[in-house]
Amino acid sequence: MALTWACSSLRREDPLIRPKSRAQTSLARPVTLSGRGVHSDTPARLTLSPSAADSGIVFSVDGADILADWRSVDATQLRTRLSGEGASVSTVEHLLAALAGLGVDNALVEIEGAEVPAMDGSAGAFVAALDEAGIAELAAPRRVLRVSAPVRVSDGAGWAELTPAGGGLSLDVEIAFEGRIGRQRRALDVTPETFRRELAGARSFGFLRDAERLWRGGLALGASLGNTVVLDGETVLNPEGLRYVDEFVRHKMLDVVGDLALAGAPILGAFRSFRGGHALNVALVQTAMRQGALELVERHVVAERPAASFAIISPEQSPS
Question: Which residues form the active site (predicted)?
C-alpha cells in the first residue's frame, strides 16, 4: 500500500531503557570503509578511530579538522555538509546517525575525499563497521543536552520542533508526498536497539523525474539503484523492492538522528516534524542552541529506566 499512516505505526516501539553506563564512549580500535559519494560520484575512503573524552566527532579532511557541530554546517540541500579551515565534508548524516544511534560520543573520522561514501544509502554499513571496531567506555562522565523549553521552526508547510520530555530522545516524524509514498508517520524512542532494528537499514530515496535537474546542480551524480530507492511514478525501480513498507519515513527519521547529533551531545526530549528535511533539522538545532533551549547536564545516576539525576554544567565547564 502507498499509504502506511496507520495507528499501529504511531506506538512507541520499546520502553525507553537508558544506557547502563554513565561514561562517555569512543571506539575500541580503528576501522576503515570505502565507497563512492552519492552526490560527487568520487571515491571516498574513511577510517574511524578512537579519540579522547570530550573531543566529540571530528572529521579530518585535507589536513583540516572539522568538528561535527551545528556551527560547521554550510549546506543542507539533499545532504548535510560541514566546513572549516578551508575544507569541507559532505553527506555526513548517515555516519553521524550510526554513531549517535549506537551511543558513540567521541571518534576521529579521517576521510580521503570530500564526501562520506554512500554505501547502500542507509546507515547499515556504518553500524557494521562500528560493531567491528567495538565501543569502549572512557574515564569521563557522559554529558547530554536536555530540552528545557519548546523550540519550533517552519518553512512553508513544513515544520520541526523540540519539546521537553522525560527519558531519552523520542521521534515523531510525518512525511507527505504525491503518488506511491503518500503520507507516512512513525514514532519511535531512540535506543541502540531500536536504531539498529527500525532505522539503520532504511535507504535514501529519490524520483527519476528529478534526476536531470539534480545532475545540472551537481547533485546525485553517483546515485544508483545500489544506493538509492528510485521511484518512477508509482513504481519502485529497485529489483529487490523496499526493505520496509514505510522505508521512506524511516529514512527521514534516520536523517533526523544524524542531524540532531550536530548539537554535540545526546538530546533528551521529544522531536516532531512534518514534511521536514536536513534544512529544518539543522535550523532547529541552531535555533535551540542560540535560544538556550538545550541545557547541558551531566548524568550522575546509572539507571535502567527514565528516572535519573542530573547536574547542570556551568558555561565555563562546557566543552568548546
Answer: 278
Residue 54 domain flag: yes
Q: Is the confidence at residue 10, as pLDDT, over 60?
A: no
Confirm if 166 and 51 have CB atoms less than 8 A apart.
Answer: no
Q: Is 299 inside a domain boundary? A: yes
Q: Give the contacts of 83 (CB within 8 A, at least 6 positions apart).
A: 66, 72, 74, 89
In a domain, 197, yes or no: yes
84 domain residue, yes or no: yes
Q: Is 39 annotated as a binding residue?
A: no
Number of structural domains (the chain) is 1
Q: What is the C-alpha separation between 81 and 83, in angstroms, rounded?
A: 7
- Per-residue burial over 264-286, b = 16 or more CB atoms within 10 Å of its CB, e = otherwise: bbbbbbbbbbbbbbbbbbbbbbb
Q: Which of 57, 58, 71, 141 is nearest to 102 (CA)?
A: 57
Task: Decide: 161 and 273 in contact? Cβ < 8 Å.
Answer: yes
**pTM assigned to the model:** 0.86
Can you give the residue range of the structural domain that contains 183? 7-317
Question: Please, are residues 267 and 289 in contact by the beta-carbon 8 Å criterion?
Answer: no
Contact 112, 32 (CB under 8 A): no
Helices (H), the chain: 93-101, 124-133, 192-194, 211-216, 247-260, 278-290
Q: What is the mean pLDDT of residues 274-293?
A: 97
Helices vs. strands in the chain: H and E counts, helices first: 6, 21
**Residue 320 pLDDT more than 80?**
no
pLDDT tens-digit profile of 241-257? 999 999 999 999 999 99
152-165 burial, b for 16+ CB within 10 Å, e for fewer? ebeeeebbbbbeeb
CATH of the domain at 312: 3.30.1700.10
Establish whether 300 is an annotated binding residue.
no
For residue 222, the model assigns a pLDDT of 83
Could you read off the pLDDT of 74-84 as tens digits, one per residue?
989 888 999 99
Among residues 248, 278, 283, 308, which one is catalytic?
278
pLDDT for 113: 87
